[in-house]
């Protein structure tokens, strides 16, 4: 458990309980650490009355305001709280109902402390296999719903006209295949971004290049990518439609690979040494559903292989998708919303 939980528990709980006594805790609210949390929740929100938003801090409030979302800055004292992460310690009143859900598909790194998860009444995971893994380490609040972030790609919300507009905005050349590069945090110990971030210019003559990286990636790395001519840096929370534009996705151990797999994209991955964030089951899945290479000079051949034999690893992707998502039917948000309505009956009403 993080130290702030113990520091917050008494003062936060006293204030919350006094407010509860006078019926001042009225709203079920969504806690957002950034704009990505809001975007991830969108496919759940569509099945619920509008939720008021709690921003983690002023920076998060500004991010949300930039996309037209008003919010109150934490600390706030809601009747109940929903979050796209595991941050129950910020709301330590034990009688407050709390729900968390994944902001990245499946668990590509080891589970955090089970005590932190178990502060929550529910934590929505992306598959029954993930729930089994969670239960094995003592997490008791897990429920499988799927990954709502992917729903728009399977329920018809994103159409060909929208994708064409994105492609035009990214400056994609119809005569070239499109590569999407992704990487986990550069200091995670399991990132391969150092292999390619300063070499993208060698590929732009032959391919369209899209890039998305972990938000914590060093600024100098991001700036190098942004400064590379004919490379489009995806600087938005909603990367899924850009994945759909790609012919081949290139990565390491980032959970974005799960999203690429769900969208049936051929993948090339750089091998990385095991670190404290390595999950052996996930490492094996990546090995099975992608063409693996060790160095940048092997990339050109791997890309050609992926483009000429696009169905070569289709069976492995299907297997991985069953493990990571159970089903990809565009209804994960609905399943999450139904669980929320069970826990928070007021969400069955027309107004929250």
Automatic annotation (TrEMBL):
Cellular component GO terms held in the UniProt record: membrane
InterPro entries the UniProt entry points to: Glycerophosphate_synth (IPR007554), TagF_C (IPR043148), Teichoic_Acid_Biosynth (IPR051612)
Pfam families given in the database record: Glyphos_transf (PF04464)
Gene Ontology MF annotations: CDP-glycerol glycerophosphotransferase activity
Record SUPFAM superfamilies: UDP-Glycosyltransferase/glycogen phosphorylase
PANTHER family the record matches: TEICHOIC ACID GLYCEROL-PHOSPHATE PRIMASE (PTHR37316), TEICHOIC ACID GLYCEROL-PHOSPHATE TRANSFERASE (PTHR37316:SF3)
Name of the protein described by the UniProt record: CDP-glycerol glycerophosphotransferase family protein
């Amino acid at each position: 458990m993080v130290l702030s939980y113990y520091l917050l528990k008494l003062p936060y709980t006293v204030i919350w309980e006094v407010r509860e006594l006078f019926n001042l805790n009225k709203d079920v609210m969504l806690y957002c650490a950034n704009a990505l949390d809001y975007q991830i929740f969108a496919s759940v929100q569509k099945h619920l009355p509008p939720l008021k938003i709690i921003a983690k801090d002023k920076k998060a409030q500004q991010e949300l305001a930039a996309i037209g979302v008003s919010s109150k800055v934490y600390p706030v004292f809601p009747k109940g709280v929903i979050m796209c992460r595991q941050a129950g310690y910020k709301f330590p009143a034990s009688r407050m109902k709390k729900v968390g859900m994944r902001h990245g598909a499946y668990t590509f790194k080891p589970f955090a402390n089970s005590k932190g998860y178990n502060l929550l009444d529910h934590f929505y995971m992306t598959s029954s296999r993930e729930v089994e893994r969670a239960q094995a380490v003592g997490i008791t609040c897990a429920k499988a719903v799927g990954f709502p972030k992917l729903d728009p790609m399977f329920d018809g919300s994103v159409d060909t006209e929208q994708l064409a507009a994105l492609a035009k905005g990214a400056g994609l050349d119809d005569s070239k295949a499109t590569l999407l590069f992704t990487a986990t945090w550069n200091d995670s110990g399991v990132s391969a971004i150092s292999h390619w971030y300063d070499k993208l210019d060698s590929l732009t003559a032959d391919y369209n290049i899209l890039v998305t990286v972990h938000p914590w990636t060093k600024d100098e790395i991001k700036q190098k990518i942004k400064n590379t001519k004919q490379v489009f840096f995806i600087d938005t929370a909603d990367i899924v439609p850009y994945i759909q534009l790609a012919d081949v996705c290139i990565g390491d151990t980032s959970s974005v690979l799960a999203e690429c797999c769900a969208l049936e994209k051929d993948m090339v991955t750089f091998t990385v040494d095991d670190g404290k964030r390595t999950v052996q089951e996930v490492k094996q899945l990546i090995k099975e559903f992608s063409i693996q290479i060790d160095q940048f000079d092997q990339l050109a051949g791997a890309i050609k292989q992926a483009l000429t034999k696009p169905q070569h690893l289709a069976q492995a992707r299907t297997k991985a998708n069953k493990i990571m998502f159970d089903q990809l039917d565009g209804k994960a948000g609905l399943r999450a919303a139904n669980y929320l309505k069970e826990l928070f009956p007021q969400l069955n009403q027309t107004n929250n």
